Amino acid sequence: DILLLSAIGFRINHGHLKRRTPEGGIPRPDYIEHLVEEYYTTTDVEAKEQVTANLANFGYDPINWEYLKEANALDVFEDCVKSPNERLQLNALAGFCNICLDPEAFKFITKSEIFDQIKLLLNTAENTDIHLNCIALFYQLLTSDTCTQEGKNIIATSCILKTITQLRNASPDQRVKNIAALYCEDFGSRVEETVDSKNVLATLKTIKK
Protein backbone atom coordinates (compact mmCIF):
# COMPACT_ATOMS: atom_id res chain seq x y z
CA ASP A 1 0.00 0.00 0.00
CA ILE A 2 1.81 3.12 -1.22
CA LEU A 3 -0.06 5.42 1.16
CA LEU A 4 1.45 3.56 4.08
CA LEU A 5 4.94 4.37 2.81
CA SER A 6 4.46 8.04 3.57
CA ALA A 7 3.95 7.34 7.27
CA ILE A 8 7.11 5.24 7.71
CA GLY A 9 9.55 6.62 10.21
CA PHE A 10 7.42 9.42 11.66
CA ARG A 11 7.13 9.49 15.44
CA ILE A 12 3.97 11.16 16.70
CA ASN A 13 4.47 13.09 19.92
CA HIS A 14 1.43 15.06 21.07
CA GLY A 15 2.85 16.11 24.44
CA HIS A 16 3.92 19.58 23.41
CA LEU A 17 0.57 20.39 21.86
CA LYS A 18 -1.48 18.81 24.64
CA ARG A 19 -0.03 21.34 27.03
CA ARG A 20 -1.62 24.07 24.88
CA THR A 21 -4.91 22.31 24.17
CA PRO A 22 -7.99 23.19 26.28
CA GLU A 23 -9.18 20.52 28.68
CA GLY A 24 -11.77 18.30 27.03
CA GLY A 25 -10.17 18.73 23.62
CA ILE A 26 -11.12 20.82 20.60
CA PRO A 27 -12.88 19.95 17.33
CA ARG A 28 -10.67 18.41 14.68
CA PRO A 29 -10.75 21.42 12.27
CA ASP A 30 -9.76 23.71 15.12
CA TYR A 31 -7.00 21.33 16.18
CA ILE A 32 -5.55 21.26 12.66
CA GLU A 33 -5.71 25.05 12.56
CA HIS A 34 -3.97 25.06 15.92
CA LEU A 35 -1.18 22.89 14.49
CA VAL A 36 -0.65 25.28 11.58
CA GLU A 37 -0.56 28.25 13.94
CA GLU A 38 1.93 26.43 16.13
CA TYR A 39 4.22 25.83 13.14
CA TYR A 40 4.40 29.53 12.34
CA THR A 41 4.68 30.83 15.91
CA THR A 42 7.15 28.41 17.49
CA THR A 43 10.89 28.89 17.18
CA ASP A 44 11.59 25.38 18.46
CA VAL A 45 12.74 23.13 15.60
CA GLU A 46 11.64 19.94 17.35
CA ALA A 47 8.18 21.42 17.88
CA LYS A 48 7.98 22.22 14.16
CA GLU A 49 8.96 18.64 13.38
CA GLN A 50 6.27 17.27 15.69
CA VAL A 51 3.62 19.64 14.35
CA THR A 52 4.32 18.79 10.72
CA ALA A 53 4.40 15.06 11.46
CA ASN A 54 0.93 15.44 12.98
CA LEU A 55 -0.34 17.43 10.00
CA ALA A 56 1.06 14.81 7.61
CA ASN A 57 -0.69 12.02 9.46
CA PHE A 58 -4.01 13.88 9.49
CA GLY A 59 -3.80 13.76 5.69
CA TYR A 60 -4.01 9.98 5.76
CA ASP A 61 -7.77 10.23 6.38
CA PRO A 62 -9.61 11.87 3.44
CA ILE A 63 -12.18 13.31 5.85
CA ASN A 64 -9.45 15.71 6.99
CA TRP A 65 -8.48 16.99 3.54
CA GLU A 66 -10.86 19.95 3.59
CA TYR A 67 -9.76 20.87 7.10
CA LEU A 68 -6.10 20.77 6.05
CA LYS A 69 -6.74 22.92 2.98
CA GLU A 70 -8.83 25.45 4.92
CA ALA A 71 -6.09 25.75 7.55
CA ASN A 72 -3.45 26.30 4.81
CA ALA A 73 -1.53 23.17 5.78
CA LEU A 74 -0.43 22.84 2.15
CA ASP A 75 1.50 26.10 2.56
CA VAL A 76 3.21 24.59 5.60
CA PHE A 77 4.23 21.55 3.55
CA GLU A 78 5.53 23.85 0.80
CA ASP A 79 7.61 25.74 3.35
CA CYS A 80 8.98 22.48 4.74
CA VAL A 81 9.86 20.92 1.41
CA LYS A 82 12.03 24.00 0.74
CA SER A 83 13.66 23.75 4.17
CA PRO A 84 17.21 22.41 4.67
CA ASN A 85 15.88 20.32 7.58
CA GLU A 86 15.53 16.71 6.39
CA ARG A 87 12.84 15.78 8.89
CA LEU A 88 10.71 18.73 7.82
CA GLN A 89 11.29 17.71 4.20
CA LEU A 90 10.17 14.18 5.01
CA ASN A 91 7.09 15.36 6.87
CA ALA A 92 6.16 17.60 3.95
CA LEU A 93 6.57 14.76 1.44
CA ALA A 94 4.51 12.50 3.69
CA GLY A 95 1.79 15.12 3.88
CA PHE A 96 1.80 15.55 0.11
CA CYS A 97 1.66 11.77 -0.36
CA ASN A 98 -1.37 11.51 1.89
CA ILE A 99 -3.39 14.37 0.38
CA CYS A 100 -2.25 14.35 -3.27
CA LEU A 101 -5.35 12.51 -4.54
CA ASP A 102 -7.44 15.55 -3.64
CA PRO A 103 -7.88 17.58 -6.88
CA GLU A 104 -6.96 20.93 -5.28
CA ALA A 105 -3.93 19.42 -3.58
CA PHE A 106 -2.89 17.79 -6.87
CA LYS A 107 -2.85 21.20 -8.57
CA PHE A 108 -0.98 22.72 -5.65
CA ILE A 109 1.74 20.07 -5.62
CA THR A 110 2.28 20.15 -9.38
CA LYS A 111 2.84 23.92 -9.46
CA SER A 112 6.30 24.38 -10.96
CA GLU A 113 7.90 26.07 -7.93
CA ILE A 114 6.85 23.18 -5.67
CA PHE A 115 7.22 20.26 -8.05
CA ASP A 116 10.69 21.45 -9.11
CA GLN A 117 11.76 21.46 -5.46
CA ILE A 118 10.50 17.88 -5.01
CA LYS A 119 12.42 16.80 -8.12
CA LEU A 120 15.51 18.49 -6.68
CA LEU A 121 15.14 16.50 -3.47
CA LEU A 122 14.85 13.27 -5.45
CA ASN A 123 18.04 14.11 -7.36
CA THR A 124 20.20 15.52 -4.58
CA ALA A 125 19.10 13.98 -1.28
CA GLU A 126 21.08 11.12 0.22
CA ASN A 127 18.32 10.14 2.63
CA THR A 128 16.62 7.00 1.30
CA ASP A 129 13.33 7.88 3.02
CA ILE A 130 13.23 11.05 0.93
CA HIS A 131 13.76 8.94 -2.21
CA LEU A 132 11.00 6.60 -1.08
CA ASN A 133 8.48 9.37 -0.46
CA CYS A 134 9.31 11.26 -3.66
CA ILE A 135 8.75 8.18 -5.81
CA ALA A 136 5.59 7.26 -3.89
CA LEU A 137 4.31 10.79 -4.47
CA PHE A 138 5.07 10.72 -8.20
CA TYR A 139 3.42 7.32 -8.54
CA GLN A 140 0.24 8.47 -6.82
CA LEU A 141 0.07 11.70 -8.81
CA LEU A 142 0.32 9.72 -12.05
CA THR A 143 -2.44 7.31 -11.01
CA SER A 144 -4.73 10.07 -9.73
CA ASP A 145 -8.05 10.64 -11.49
CA THR A 146 -7.02 14.31 -11.62
CA CYS A 147 -3.94 13.58 -13.71
CA THR A 148 -4.46 14.68 -17.33
CA GLN A 149 -2.05 14.13 -20.21
CA GLU A 150 -0.59 17.55 -19.44
CA GLY A 151 0.02 16.42 -15.87
CA LYS A 152 1.67 13.22 -17.04
CA ASN A 153 3.99 15.25 -19.25
CA ILE A 154 5.09 17.19 -16.15
CA ILE A 155 5.46 14.21 -13.82
CA ALA A 156 6.60 11.32 -16.03
CA THR A 157 9.61 12.93 -17.69
CA SER A 158 12.70 11.23 -19.04
CA CYS A 159 14.84 12.99 -16.40
CA ILE A 160 12.71 11.69 -13.54
CA LEU A 161 12.68 8.20 -15.08
CA LYS A 162 16.46 8.28 -15.37
CA THR A 163 16.88 9.17 -11.70
CA ILE A 164 14.37 6.55 -10.56
CA THR A 165 16.00 3.92 -12.76
CA GLN A 166 19.35 4.70 -11.14
CA LEU A 167 17.78 4.31 -7.70
CA ARG A 168 16.20 1.03 -8.75
CA ASN A 169 19.64 -0.26 -9.69
CA ALA A 170 21.82 1.29 -7.00
CA SER A 171 19.82 2.25 -3.89
CA PRO A 172 20.97 0.51 -0.69
CA ASP A 173 17.34 0.49 0.52
CA GLN A 174 15.23 -2.42 -0.72
CA ARG A 175 12.02 -0.40 -0.24
CA VAL A 176 13.32 2.22 -2.65
CA LYS A 177 14.38 -0.46 -5.12
CA ASN A 178 10.92 -2.03 -4.99
CA ILE A 179 8.92 1.15 -5.55
CA ALA A 180 11.40 2.40 -8.16
CA ALA A 181 10.98 -0.88 -10.03
CA LEU A 182 7.20 -0.51 -9.85
CA TYR A 183 7.40 3.04 -11.20
CA CYS A 184 9.66 1.96 -14.08
CA GLU A 185 7.42 -0.99 -14.88
CA ASP A 186 4.21 1.06 -14.92
CA PHE A 187 5.46 4.33 -16.42
CA GLY A 188 8.82 3.69 -18.05
CA SER A 189 7.39 2.69 -21.43
CA ARG A 190 5.12 5.77 -21.49
CA VAL A 191 8.10 8.06 -20.99
CA GLU A 192 10.12 6.27 -23.66
CA GLU A 193 7.21 6.53 -26.11
CA THR A 194 6.89 10.26 -25.40
CA VAL A 195 10.62 10.81 -25.90
CA ASP A 196 10.60 8.75 -29.10
CA SER A 197 7.65 10.76 -30.43
CA LYS A 198 9.45 14.03 -29.70
CA ASN A 199 12.57 12.74 -31.46
CA VAL A 200 10.51 11.72 -34.50
CA LEU A 201 8.85 15.15 -34.63
CA ALA A 202 12.21 16.89 -34.32
CA THR A 203 13.61 14.75 -37.14
CA LEU A 204 10.62 15.51 -39.37
CA LYS A 205 11.02 19.23 -38.76
CA THR A 206 14.69 18.98 -39.70
CA ILE A 207 13.86 17.09 -42.91
CA LYS A 208 11.25 19.71 -43.88
CA LYS A 209 13.83 22.46 -43.53
UniProtKB/TrEMBL annotation:
Pfam families, per the entry: Arm
Organism (species): Ceratitis capitata
Superkingdom of this protein's organism: Eukaryota
InterPro entries xrefs: ARM-like (IPR011989), ARM-type_fold (IPR016024), Armadillo (IPR000225), ARMC7 (IPR042462)
Gene, per the UniProt record: ARMC7
Entry-linked Gene3D superfamilies: Leucine-rich Repeat Variant
Cross-referenced PANTHER family: ARMADILLO REPEAT-CONTAINING PROTEIN 7
Protein name per UniProt: Armadillo repeat-containing protein 7
